[in-house]
Each structure stands twice: as C-alpha cells, then as structure tokens.
Amino acid sequence: MTSNGKPKFAMYWAASCGGCEIAVLNIHEKILDVDANFEVVFWPVAMDAKYKDVEAMEDGSILLTLFNGAIRNEENEHLAKLLRQKSQILVAFGSCATEGCMPALANLSPLEELVSTVYSTVSTDNPENIHPQPTYKAPEGEIHIPKLYPIVRTLDQVVDVDYYMPGCPPESHQIAAVLDLVIDAIHGKATLPPKGSVIGAGGSTVCDECPRKRDVKTIREFKRIQNIMLDPEICILEQGVICSGPATRSGCGALCPQAGSPCIGCYGPAEGVLDYGARLLTAVASVIESKDPQEIERILEGIPDPAGMFYRFNLGASLLRASKAAWAR
Amino acid sequence: MSERFEPVIIGFTCNWCSYRAADMAGMGRIQYAPNVRLIRLMCSGRLDPTFVIKAFAGGADGVLVSGCHPGDCHYIEQNYKAMRRFYLLRKLLAQMGIEPARLKLLWASAAEGQLFAEEVTKFTEEVRALGPLNWNPEAALLSEQVLYRQPAEVAA
User: Fold this and answer.
1) What is the pLDDT of chain B when averaged over all its residues?
2) I need a labelling partner for A257 at 20 to 30 A (CA). Which of A61, A127, A316, B125 fits?
3) Within this chain, do residues A164 and A232 fall inside the same structural domain, yes or no?
4) What is the CATH number of the domain that holds B47?
C-alpha cells in the first residue's frame, strides 16, 4: 500500500507497437476508474518514471502490471524480470506478450540477416555503413544499447505469468471488463479466475461470433483479398480467401469479417489449441476440392507464405517457435 | 562420425490399412529398420498436423504419415484430407527449416507388409543422410553471439 493507500498499477511496453497502450486509453472515461482505484506508479508511455524507481520498490508492491510486448532484447528481459518481482499480478497483455505477434515473425530469419536488411540493403541510405554497437566509447564515457537476442520470446518464456489477455490490441470493452473485475476483486466483490487463465476473451472461435452465412466449404483456388470482390454475407473462407476464424479465439466480436476483411488471428489460439498454425492449416487444407496430388500442390501455390500466413501472430508461442535458420548456429 | 547416427522416426499409421501392413511385416518376419516408432490412429484423417510438429519439436528426426490408398479409406475419404494437409504442412515445415525429406507420406494396404518394410528402411536411410534435427530454439540464447558486425568488417 502506498502513501495514498491505493493499490499500485503499472503498464510496460517491450517489443511492441504502442497499440496496446492506445487500446487502454480507448476505454474512455473508464480510465478515471483506474485513477480512482489505483496509484499509477509506472507507465512509460503515459507518465515519467525511471527504471531505478521501479528497482527501488519493494517486491510484490505493485498489485497489477499489464505487460505488453514481446522479449526481443536485453532491456525487454530485464524489465520483464523486474516487473515480475515487483508485481503481485502480472498480465501478459496483448498478442506480443502472449504469443509473440508481429515481432516474433522475425524468428523466421537469422538476426544477422535482419540487421543487415535494416542497415545495409540497397534501399537503405547509410553511406558510412553505420551499424549499432552494443557499446560505444564517447568522449564522455562508454555508452550501451541493449543487445538484441537471436530469437523473440513471449513473456511466459521468460518469467512466470498470472494471466493472458489476447488481442492485437485487446478490445477496449474487454480491457474495461477486466479492469472492473480486478477493481471488484480489490473490494472483495469478486474473485479472480485461476492463475494461468486467458482473460478478456471468449472460449470459442471467431467463426462462432461471425454472422456470415456458412455452407459447405470447398476451395479450388486460394485468392488474395485484393483480387476479389468479397460477397458481404457469405463465409470468407468459402470464397477462397484464407480467414483465420476457425482457429482463433473469440472475444473481438468478429469485427474484421463484418467489415469485409478476413480474420487474421490476432486473438490467438482458440481454447484447447496447442499449435495455432497447425489448427488453421488443418481447417484450410481440408477443404481443398481435389484428390489429385499434383492439383493439390498447384492449388497450394495460392498460399505462397504458409508460415507467415498461419503463424502471423503466433510464431513465438508455436511449438517450433523459430525457423532453424534463426536458432541454429 | 565414428558412431552411426540412428534417426528417431515417429510413424503415424491408420488402424485399417497401414498399421495392418506393419503387422503383416511383423508376422512375415520381414527385416526392416527399427528406427520408426509407430503410433496407431483410427485414420490418417485423424492426424492433426500438431502431432507432426510436436514430434519434430520434441526431438524426432523424421515423421512418417501413412494410411489407406486413396479410394480405400475405411472412412470413405478422410485420407484425402490427410493428403491435402500433408502437402501444405510440408511446405510450411520447409520454411521453418525442416527439410521436406524428413516428412514422408506412404499409402499401404493391409496386404502390403513388404512394401511397408521396404519404404520404412528407405525413409530411415534418407533421414540418416540428412543427419540429426535436434530441434532446440533455446540453443540460440545460450551461445555468445556476435550480434552486430563492426563497421570495419562491413567495409572489408
């Protein structure tokens, strides 16, 4: 408990885009409830605070930490471990922290290749060939930047996590509901779900929430979204465009399919799914309308990047986690 | 290598054809490579690609998927689903750095014990030639890495 008696709240971003923070602010006036019930002690995007302030806190003194972002570098890992130590409830918040999301797609390539793409390719204006160095001797002294790790990890691959909140970003109404639940729990009016639970999401699939009409699925050709005028009422997968609905956890209200765009899987694996990509691959491949190996392979040419397609959000938490090129030395 | 590498191969068979082919190979005392560990499913259509991925992630060097010949499926056409998933899975695994030759699809009827034995031996040798897979992404975090090239090296 702090000077003002309110429980402490923290939010941190590791390897992420900042969308999770915006989603939290998108809860509108509910943010006032956060302020009324919590003392915000650390939230780099919203307030000034130093890492040493967090280091000085007593262990377990922060009640709730929402941690978004994957673990890409030394700094991410340090903050993950620090916030774990200081927090009673650590929530892996959003797709990056729970399953790696876009940052973990880097796990398809060796780190050297990534760095070289950023600093050395022909399209890069870097005449002096400057590459970032972990340490640099300036006249004022030696300075450091965090080392990049060869593979991106999810939060629970680095520290113990209490709850998982999926979404890229989590929907604001789901965030509000979770905050309400924690606030109620503080006041003894509710109990928190068992440790390890997925919170702020449904227990079914996006298909279950999708109002589009479903019939028999058979696909003779996979189409890209830009090459087809989608019928607004029929199942997107039935129209030959890969939709991640069958493998993805419900909770978003099937927003994308309703807006005429396929589900891309940001709410992560549905309940009971061990490997997201395998589940989606199963759903997609099964409905190919051919019994001929050559023809099947030809139809599959319509999926030029299966790893990127089926593990778009989930590569970091998948069973394989990273391509051999990325991890093998 | 002084000692010969013995690949670990997980083989998924269907209850009605390919498992019986393996049984037939056994009853006929046909000699074949002992590297494959068979797991019987009711149908190759039951094969969730998760099983294959989990096998590779857990240390398998090769995975055999086998079922009834196309048209002969006990469940009418579920082996076609297995076939479609197989080709897509193989493509995905190649992107992850798992060579296509580490995953084999084999149709074998209950009478084809000889074929089953020969194909398992052939597959074992192919996987042996590829060497161990030793899937272990965490290994990347253990070694001291040169994460950045020095500008001097780049210039050179």
Assistant:
1) 92
2) A316
3) no
4) 3.40.50
Residue A252 binned pLDDT confidence (cut-offs 50, 70, 90): very high
Whole-number pLDDT of residue A265:
98
Q: Tell me which residue has tokens 């690609």.
A: B49
Residues 115..134 of A with a Cβ closer than 8 Å to B: which? 115-116, 120, 128-134
Best A76, A119, A131, A156 residue to mutate vs chain B (most B CBs within 10 Å): A131
The interface predicted TM-score (ipTM) is 0.93
Q: What is the mean pLDDT of residues B102-125?
A: 98
Judge if A168 and A34 occupy the same domain. yes
Residue A202 sits at φ, ψ, to 5 deg, of -90, 180
What band does A134 get if pLDDT is binned at 50, 70 and 90?
Answer: confident
Domain hosting B21: range is 9-155
Residue A197 maps to a domain? no
Q: Tokens representing B108?
A: 């074998």
Which of B147, B149, B153, B154 to mutate: most A Cβ within 10 Å? B147
Domain count within chain B = 1
Residues A97 and A118 in one domain: no
Q: In the structure encoding, which two tokens stand for residue B111, read together?
A: 């009478």
Q: Do A275 and B54 touch (CB under 8 A)?
A: yes
Question: Are A168 and A252 contained in the same domain?
Answer: no
Tell me: do A27 and A72 sit in the same domain. Answer: yes
Q: Among residues 136-165 of chain A, which lie with CB inside 8 Å of chain B? A: 147-151
First to last CA, chain B: 36
Chain A residues whose beta carbon lies within 8 Å of the beta carbon of residue B155: 129
Domain assignment present for B1: no
Query: A320: which chain B residues are within 8 Å (Cβ-Cβ)?
Result: 53, 56-57, 96, 98, 135, 137
pLDDT at B152 over 50: no
Q: Is residue A2 in a domain?
A: no
Question: Model confidence over A52-97: pLDDT tens digits?
Answer: 999 999 999 999 999 999 999 999 999 999 999 999 999 999 999 9
| Structure-derived torsion over alpha carbons of residues B105, B107, B112, B118, reported in degrees to the nearest 10 | -20
* DSSP, residue by residue, A146-205: PPEEEEEE-GGGTS--SEEE--SSPPHHHHHHHHHHHHHHHTTS--PPPTT-B-SS-SSB
The average confidence (pLDDT) of chain A is: 94
Q: Same structural domain for residues A122 and A251?
A: no
